[in-house]
Structure formats: structure tokens, C-alpha cells
Amino acid sequence: METKRTETKGTASAGTAAEGTSTEGTATGSVTRTLGRSGIRVSALGFGCWAIGGESQDATGQPLGWGKVDDEESVRAIHRALDLGVTFFDTADTYGAGHSERVLGRALGKRRDEVVVATKWGNVFDEETRTLTGRDDSPAHVRRALTASLRRLGTDHVDLYQLHISDADPARAAELRDVCEELVGEGLIRAYGWSTDDPARAAVFAEGPHCTAVQHTLNVLQDAPRLLAFAEKAELAAVNRSPLAMGLLGGRRAGAAAGDIRSRPPAWLPGFGDGEGADPAWVERIDSLREVLTSDGRTLAQGSLAWIWARSPRTIPIPGFRSVAQAEQNAGAMAKGPLAAGQMAEIDRLLGR
Questions:
Q1: What keyword terms does UniProt attach to this protein (predicted)?
Q2: Residue 109 — left, alpha, or beta (φ > 0 → left; ψ -120 to 50 → alpha)?
Q3: Which of 154, 273, 284, 328 has the CB geometry, 3.0–4.6 Å to 279, for a possible disulfide?
């Protein structure tokens, strides 16, 4: 079966376009970028849908979500993002144990064909108790997980399907890559990628012709030169999670409420110390960058996103959101564009790199 191609008012279409940015096709004239080898055009800014999944936990009670959310406000925020030209939404089946996919699917509704939807698989969870119960890297699970995600999202295909097990065995990942190629051929997904901070693992997926992205951590305090160099070499999009350092680059200083992963930060989540508030060392570094990042009328968050765009033409940051106000602030960064070369050099100087 031929892979589905969804026409989307020029922004998320599958037509091949030159790498980099353009000013074509969005509701506000904001820049767009190419999703790696796929040729799919998306808004330069994506929206990450982890936070709107609400509360979830692992078997020990460790929070895995961002606390309580208002689903109606989440829907309004997605609608506002669409109106402001955002055409790329990234979620995962495990966010809120399926809840994020359900909210996103409901919000998109009849506008599904205007956007590019990315989701992830690899974790196993109980939807009723919102509890992560394990992970499954078997080839058989790929199809089970995709079928469930399609149902929750209310769609017949996923545009970008991503492996969510960052440290999966490379040999097993090669089998999963081959399954993804089958799914592309069946029209159930358009492209695939791996959410991992390891270039060697990303390279395993990149051997597949329809691999088009690697998702990895990137923000002004956590650079990823090896991943960005790999994305350039392999002609992949670099989809950037934690672009605002889990809220720290949006100005967050206070501790998080119970049920929020930042209230009991795991080892892989730096910047929040013991969960009582932002790590003073991180605050100091952020404050040293504030004047540069807020230049040209930007907010701190907008300047942080502008740094990512200037870092590489392959980057597509996906900040999280839980309100219309956050959606408006993040989307507003597109009108300002990337930082200038001089501003980038000054940030490197201030950070001593």
C-alpha cells in the first residue's frame, strides 16, 4: 500500500523542500522547517504534549507527569496554537497513560489534516490507574502500541512514530526499524525516529530510508553538539525536547506541587535540586544570559527558543504547555526568529564554551 500523504495548507505537506527555514505556508507567515529526509514541512516550533497528559506515576509512586491539568484549557491552548501557525504536535502513548493522546486527538478533530502528529511507543502502562508498569521492545508490541495510539488520537495514521526507549539494545532496535519500514509501506505511519541522546543508537534507525528524525535534549544550558552533527550528517530533523529546561528557561524558580515530576526530580532531570526549587547554580547561569536572551523584545522563553533555531537549521524545539497564555508566548517566538551570530557568540562567552 502506498504511504498516505496528507495535504495541509502548505505547512505540513509532504512535498520536498530545501533544508532550513522559509516564510511560506503558516497562518501568521512564521518560519517553517523540514522534517528531515521526509520533506514534510512543519512550523519551526512544535508543541510538546507531555504536560497536558496530567498526572501519572510509576509502580513506586514516583510522579511521571506535570501535575493536575484542566483538559478544556488544554484544548483551548491547542486551538490557539493552531491559529498562531503551529503545525507540529509531539506526544507519547505513556504521557498521562494515554490521556495526552486522547486530549490532542479531541482538540484536533476535523483539523487533523492541517498538522503533523508525532507520538512514541515502547512503554507499557495501565490506563485506569495511570501507572507505568514496564517497557516492551518487542517487534510485536510496535503494532499493538500503534493500534492503541491511533484509536486514542482518532486518526488513521501517525506522521512521525518514535521509539521511546532511549537505551534500547541496538540489535533489537534494528528489528524495530524494520517493523517501522513495514508500517510506512502499509500507510499507518509516514516516517519514524528514535528519542535518544546517543548518536550511535540513532544511527541504527538512520539506516532505514524512512527514518527522518532523532529526538533529544537541547537547550541553551544543555548543548548537544554530537547529536546535532549526527543529524546534519544523516539528514535528520533534530526534534528538541526540554528546550526550556522543564520551565527553568521560562522563569520558573519555585518548587513544584505534589504529583509533578519536578517535585521529586529523578537523576536524569537536572536543575531542580531536591525538588524544593530551582538549583541555585542553574539560576545563576540563567540570570547571566537574561540580557542577551531577552534582547529585541523577547521574553526569556522566546530567547531560549531563538537560541535553538540559531544553533542549527535542523532543530525543531517542542516546548510544553498547559494554558492558552503559554501557547501564545511560545508561538510568539516564531515572529522574532533565531538569535543573531553575535548574540550566539556572546552566550558562548558567558557560559565559557
A1: Oxidoreductase
A2: left
A3: 273
